[in-house]
Amino acid sequence: MKHQEIIESLPWYVNGTLDQAERAAVTQHLATGCDECAREVKSLRAIHKAVKTAGDEAPEPSPFLLNRALAEIEDYERTRGQEQSGQTAKPSSSPSLLDRLRESWWPKTPVFARMALATQLALVLVVGSIAIYQYENPRTVGDGIKTLSGPSGTASGGAQLSVIFNESATESEIRQTLQEIHGSIVEGPTAQGLYTIQLAVPPEQTAELDKIMKTLLEKKRIVRWVQEKQ
Amino acid sequence: MEHVLEIRVLAAGKKPRMQEHIDPEIELLRQIAAGDRDAFEKLYKAYQGRLFRYLLRMVGDTGAAEELTNDAMIAAWKAASTFKGESRPSTWLFSIARNKALNAMRGKKPVMVDAETALAVAASSDSPERSATRSSLRDTMKLALQELSPDHREVMELTFYQELSYQEIAEIMECPVNTVKTRMFYAKKRLQEILEQKGIKEEML
Q1: Most buried of the four, A141, B70, B95, B178, by CB within 10 Å?
Q2: Cα A223 to Cα B5: distance, rounded to the nearest angstrom
């Protein structure tokens, strides 16, 4: 290999992806004492390190992304199944507002607008649900005493979660999930499919709450979205 | 033995291969093509971070990069049965992600850094003492990378963050191998110019 070929292949010498023969050629060339290539290797190594560090410092993607991807796959497979069986595409149950919105304009909206809208919608969901809840249950917010509980009766002062379940989750899956976290539905679904879950664990027990959030997060085919209700 | 091999080859519909083991990611794609959600989860977890960072570097916006990561992985689910094993699964996935990003960016201005970061870094490079510290050198480098053209930034990202070979990069960027090398050559030259403008000389690296 000539000097020019060598120098052009140095970035991949530095990132360790050259094949054996190329690597040997570069090593041999460097051993001849080519100053220009030696300097180039040095500065490429610095760039390699800096780019790596900059990349590692990048923000982490949301832990809910996979849940959303799996939910979209279920939607896709369901629609495909309906198309293949020759049925007219008819929803199994009345679709939630989110689904109707998503199916009508979501895929046609540019990704930037989609993400901005998604962020806004999420904010509206959270802020809105808290506002509505506060309006309807003025005494329950703050002290956490719930008034709408079922027969199970949860401890007062427990934390509350806002949860959206996946459309494809069955009633028994949701029931099992609730049993597992010792939670019960105290409100919902809202028009957006949002449920309020009452837990026995008080909000101060953050470690315990984190564990519950993690449990929910891992149920990717059941839970689409969860957040602690403030 | 020859017969057995032949039957296997016929069954796979492929040329005979020397290596014994099958790439586990190719196996995952096969399972995904058959509708295996667990296999999808595995592949997703293996690539989420890498694709997200690549897309973030391309589009410069966390939310958009997240959406595109999912768009790419869902596209992979839909297209898994069309994966023929002609390229590595990683190259295939990056190609999908790249096309998603290019579609999303069509008609948009190239990604620029936000003003706040630019000001902060400019302020730090004003003082020679501070710019000599490791953290501001890194900040300056980050900013300089952002100032590269999208093509230059992409080749830097694929080489130095994703650590791909130039052949893989050529496949992802859909261009000849020599174009990748030339692009990298100019990208590096441009990066050095930007760094010098910011008061960082090659020997400081």
Answers
A1: B70
A2: 46
Phi, psi of A229 (to 5 degrees): -85, 125
Handedness of CA B71, B72, B76, B77 (dihedral sign): negative
User: What distance in Å separates the CA atoms of residue A58 and residue B47, rounded to the nearest whole number?
Assistant: 15
Quote the ipTM score. Answer: 0.74
Q: Reduced to 3 states, what is the DSSP secondary structure of residue B201?
A: coil
Average model confidence (pLDDT) across chain A: 76
CB B98 within 8 A of CB B173: yes
* Half-sphere exposure for A209 (CA within 13 Å, toward CB): 18
User: To the nearest 10°, the Cα dihedral for A130, A134, A139, A141?
Assistant: 20
Residues B100-122, buried b or exposed e (16+ Cβ, 10 A)?
Answer: bbeebbeeeeebeeeeeeeeebe
Determine the pLDDT at residue A140: 38
Please, are residues B138 and A53 in contact by the beta-carbon 8 Å criterion? yes
CA nearest neighbour of B93 among B164, B150, B184, B22: B164
**Is A78 an interface residue toward B (CB < 8 Å)?**
no
- N- to C-terminal Cα distance for chain B? 58
Q: Are strands A194-199 and A183-187 parallel, antiparallel or unpaired?
A: antiparallel
Residue range A143-161: mean pLDDT, rounded = 54
Q: Which amino acid is at A140?
A: T
Q: Could you tell me which residues come within 8 angstroms of residue B142 by beta carbon, excluding any fewer than 6 positions away? A: A50, A54, B121
* Residue of A211, B159, A51, B160 whose CA lies nearest to B170: B159
User: In chain B, which residue ranges form alpha helices assigned H by DSSP?
Assistant: 2-12, 24-33, 37-59, 62-79, 89-105, 115-126, 128-132, 134-147, 150-156, 166-173, 177-197
Residues of B in Cβ contact (< 8 Å) with A114: 67
CA A56, CA B39: separation in Å to the nearest integer?
Answer: 26
For B143, nearest residue in chain A (alpha carbons): A54
Residues of A within 8 A of B163 (CB-CB) are 15-17
Residues whose CB falls within 8 Å of the CB of residue B110, separated by 6 or more in sequence, listed in order: B149, B150
Question: Does B189 contact A at CB distance below 8 Å?
Answer: no
pLDDT in tens, A174-193: 999 999 999 999 888 887 78
Dihedral sign from CA coordinates of A202, A204, A207, A213? positive
Chain B residue with CA closest to A60: the answer is B49
Window 39-98 of B, Cβ < 8 Å to A? 40-41, 44-45, 48-49, 52-53, 56-57, 61-71, 73-74, 77-78
